[in-house]
Structures are given as structure tokens and as C-alpha cells.
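Sequence, please.
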């Protein structure tokens, strides 16, 4: 018997298969295009479904005894569908600028703090409800033809099983879900003039939707006994896959986006969260919540540096048979050992996320000289991302956090240099986990529990979460970084008025 995690991302999906002991076996990935223009950022929901069928089919050919598949996905993006589940329009991504006026309309009707106390979210046009309002106002014929409104996770589950259900954490990303009563908010849907009956049924994370339909079985090669599980929003799945189940542990997701995910053992102070635009999301364990503190550019900033600044170094790294990231780290260490770079890098290359949520902010590199090397800039970018996380940590201080360590996932967790830098700067132990795909691991863990393979999440974690190295903070380095941080936290306010 096998279990699988299906992770639906903004540019591609992956289906990862594990055996009955939770051991990784294989994965299949498929990409799909995103369309970006000044007036809209869109994705084709039908293309996502095609990619899902293809990735599952590749795995089912190798492992026909897959007993359960858990579905996790990125948030916010939804699609209106007809009676047969066919998309009626291109789906708007969270970065799509449409919905700003509608979001302001909701604020004027209900009040920003009131919305936050209901939904756990400070109002912003990135969330689904504002964009639903935009469609109804500007494309009334689409809204009139709509029989269901589905986010990408429940869209996939619906096509695989015929059941329209959405887990609490993904439902939260609509900005129309009551996180205390765990149901759609009548007040918000009435103010938005959207029919809440079009939405999927909210269920706890890790709820079985049913077995796969005959049609989907033919499309994928799976048995009609295969169970499909509604897992969660991808960041919640990553927290589960990192083995973080209470407030003593937080998760550092070092992927394309850098995301710090603390866990709260009770509802945090919403007013504190409001000030920093921090989301409050129901966790997989009843009564617990998570929050997202993030920078749009984590690993993406390293990638920008490699592709734009370090082209020659990339070539030399290839000749040595090592990654360009490792090459740049060694190059810097050979010149400066562990000295801070002397640069101040504002990592807002794709806008500012928490605690500012300022899409107009831009990146900046301060302190350049004619002696600055590509390795210096690379190191400065690493530092800038971590300073931004420390800034978020300070903004969260009075919200009720009490974590004593961090579990690190994603590709960045494999960099010993970056992990030690984070431990030093944040002044917390950082434990790197073996897997880079914590989201699919978490999805498979919840699937294993749902179908009875594991007795509970602790049992699943014992089988599937593997710690590698723990990096301990060094007092003298923390103090050195602190002095630089005092300058870093002024950079945004100094640079932003010039943009």
C-alpha cells in the first residue's frame, strides 16, 4: 500500500509517493503557464487539472496500489465553474491587481478591524472575496452562469471525487471565513453580495472527500478504491511536514518565498496581527492556529543574484562540478571568513510582504564599492532575507509567540552557511530537515492518518520527519548582526519615499 501527496503550486504541481512506512519512493512534476500583464495575473484552471491527471498517471503506472492521495494547494486563487465543473474564466492569482476597489468597499461597509476579527486577515485585495466581487461587477454573465466557486485545492478534489469540500485553512484565504466558528461568514458574504451557497463545504484539514470517480480513475490509472483527502493550504501542510505541532516550534520555509510560520496554542491577539498584516489560520490540530510572516523573495533573491550578477561564477562552478550557490559561499568564506558583508540589501525585489504588504516597494543594495564582488552581493542578499525575517520576528513579539527553536525546510535548508546565519541572527537553534518538499510530506502524513496507516500525526512524524543538523546560535555573532540590523530596519523608510 502506498500514499501520496499532491501539491498544487502557482507554476506547477507535483505528486510524491511514499510507502507504508512513510519512506519516499518517487515523484512526478508537471508545469503550467502563468500569464502576467499590467492589468492581470492569471492561470488556466483547466491546465492545472490536466497537469494533475498527468502527474498522478505517471505515479500510478509505477505504483498502482496508491491507497490515498492528499491534496494541498496555494491559496487565494479561485475559479467559477459551470454545472460540469468547467472553468468559466481564467483564474486570477493573488498578485492580480483587480479587486482593490471592491476590498475598500468591504472595509467601508464592515470596518477593517471587524473583518480581521472575523477572518484572521487584515483586508487586502489579494484575497478571494474582493476578486469574486470584481467578477460579479465587471463580468455579470460569468457570475450568472456560475454553479460553484472553487479554490484550486477544492477544484482538484471536486474533479477527482465529485465532492465539493474545502479545508478550514484554505477557506481562510478567501477573507470570507469565520476562523472562530469555522464556517463561512454570513456578514462578509452579505456585504460582498456573493452567494455563499456557491462555496464548497468547509471541513477540518485532513478530511477524506471520498473515493476517486470512475472518470478520474480512467484518466489517472488509479483504482476506484483510492481515497482523496482535502489536506490544507500549502504553508499549513509544510508546517505539518516539518513536524511542528505546538507553540514551542516554528517553521522556517526556505523556498522561493521565505516564510516564518509560528504556531499558537490559542487564538493570538488579532490587533497585534493586524498591524503587521499577519494572517491567522486554523491549524490541523483543533484550537491551534498558525500565522505567516514572509518575504516574497527568499530563494528567489539568491536565484536573481546567480542569474544576473554571478554568470561567470556559475560557469566556473559547473567546471568544478558544484552548485553555483556552494561556489559563491566558498568564494566569500575564502576572502572574508564569516564577516558580515558590509552591504545592506532590502529584499523587496517583488514588493514588500509582511509586516508592510507594500507592493510598490522595490529592492535596494546599499554599500557597493569598486571592490565589491559577486560573492559579496550574494552574501548580502542572504543577510537581507534574514534581517527581514528578524524584522518580522520583532513585529510578532507581542502576539503570543513562545517558540524556542525553528525547523527549516526547503532548498535553503541545505545551505549550512545560511542556516548558521539564521541561527545567529534570530538567536534561535535552527534544525534542518532532510526533505526539501515539506508540503508533500505533510500532505502524505495527513493522508496516512486519514486512511488509518498512522495512528496520529506524532506517529506519522516518527516515520516521515527526519532531522539532519541543528545549528546553534553564537552570542558574539548575534551581537554583531544586531548592530547591523539597527541600520537595516531604517532602510525601508529611507528608500521607500524615493520610489
Amino acid at each position: 500500500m502506498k500514499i501520496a501527496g499532491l501539491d498544487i503550486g502557482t507554476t506547477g504541481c507535483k505528486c510524491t509517493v511514499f510507502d507504508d512506512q512513510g519512506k519516499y519512493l518517487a515523484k512526478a512534476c508537471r508545469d503550467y503557464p502563468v500569464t502576467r500583464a499590467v492589468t492581470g495575473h492569471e492561470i488556466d484552471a483547466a491546465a492545472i487539472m490536466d497537469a494533475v491527471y498527468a502527474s498522478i498517471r505517471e505515479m500510478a503506472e509505477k505504483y498502482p496500489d496508491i491507497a490515498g492521495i492528499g491534496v494541498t494547494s496555494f491559496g487565494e486563487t479561485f475559479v467559477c465553474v459551470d454545472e460540469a465543473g468547467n472553468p468559466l474564466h481564467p483564474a486570477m492569482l493573488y498578485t492580480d491587481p483587480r479587486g482593490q476597489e471592491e476590498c475598500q468597499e468591504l472595509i467601508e461597509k464592515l470596518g477593517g478591524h471587524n473583518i480581521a476579527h472575523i477572518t484572521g486577515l487584515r483586508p487586502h485585495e489579494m484575497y478571494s472575496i474582493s476578486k469574486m466581487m470584481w467578477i460579479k461587477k465587471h463580468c455579470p454573465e460569468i457570475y450568472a452562469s456560475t454553479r460553484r466557486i472553487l479554490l484550486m485545492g477544492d477544484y482538484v478534489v471536486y474533479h477527482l471525487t465529485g465532492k465539493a469540500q474545502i479545508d478550514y485553512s484554505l477557506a481562510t484565504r478567501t477573507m470570507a471565513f469565520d476562523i472562530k466558528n469555522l464556517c463561512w461568514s454570513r456578514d462578509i458574504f452579505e456585504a460582498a453580495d456573493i452567494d455563499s451557497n456557491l462555496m464548497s463545504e468547509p471541513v477540518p484539514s485532513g478530511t477524506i472527500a471520498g473515493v476517486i470517480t470512475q472518470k478520474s480513475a480512467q484518466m489517472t490509472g488509479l483504482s476506484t478504491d483510492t481515497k482523496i483527502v482535502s489536506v490544507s493550504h500549502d504553508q499549513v501542510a509544510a508546517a505539518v511536514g516539518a513536524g511542528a505541532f505546538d507553540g514551542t516550534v516554528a517553521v522556517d520555509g526556505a523556498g522561493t518565498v521565505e516564510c516564518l510560520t509560528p504556531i499558537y496554542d490559542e487564538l493570538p491577539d488579532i490587533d497585534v496581527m493586524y498591524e503587521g498584516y499577519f494572517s491567522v489560520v486554523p491549524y490541523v490540530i483543533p484550537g491551534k492556529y498558525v500565522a505567516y510572516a514572509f518575504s516574497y523573495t527568499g530563494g528567489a533573491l539568491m536565484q536573481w543574484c546567480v542569474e544576473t550578477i554571478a554568470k561567470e561564477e556559475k560557469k566556473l562552478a559547473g567546471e568544478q562540478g558544484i552548485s553555483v550557490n556552494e561556489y559563491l559561499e566558498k568564494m566569500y568564506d575564502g576572502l572574508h571568513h564569516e564577516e558580515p558583508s558590509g552591504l545592506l540589501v532590502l529584499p523587496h525585489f517583488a514588493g514588500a510582504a509582511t509586516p508592510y504588504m507594500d507592493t510598490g516597494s522595490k529592492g535596494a543594495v546599499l554599500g557597493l564599492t569598486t571592490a565589491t564582488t559577486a560573492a559579496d552581493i550574494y552574501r548580502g542578499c542572504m543577510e537581507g532575507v534574514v534581517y527581514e525575517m528578524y524584522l518580522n520576528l520583532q513585529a510578532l513579539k507581542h502576539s503570543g509567540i513562545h517558540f524556542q527553536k525553528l525547523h527549516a525546510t526547503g532548498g535553503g535548508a541545505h545551505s549550512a552557511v545560511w542556516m548558521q546565519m539564521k541561527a545567529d541572527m534570530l538567536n534561535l537553534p535552527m534544525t534542518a530537515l532532510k526533505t526539501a518538499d515539506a508540503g508533500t510530506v505533510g500532505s502524505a502524513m495527513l493522508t496516512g492518518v486519514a486512511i488509518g496507516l498512522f495512528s496520529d500525526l506524532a506517529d506519522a512524524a516518527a516515520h516521515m520527519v527526519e532531522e539532519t543538523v541543528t545549528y546553534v546560535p553564537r552570542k558574539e555573532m548575534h551581537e554583531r548582526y544586531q548592530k547591523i540590523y539597527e541600520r537595516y530596519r531604517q532602510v525601508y523608510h529611507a528608500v521607500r519615499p524615493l520610489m
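The longest helix spans residues 374-396.
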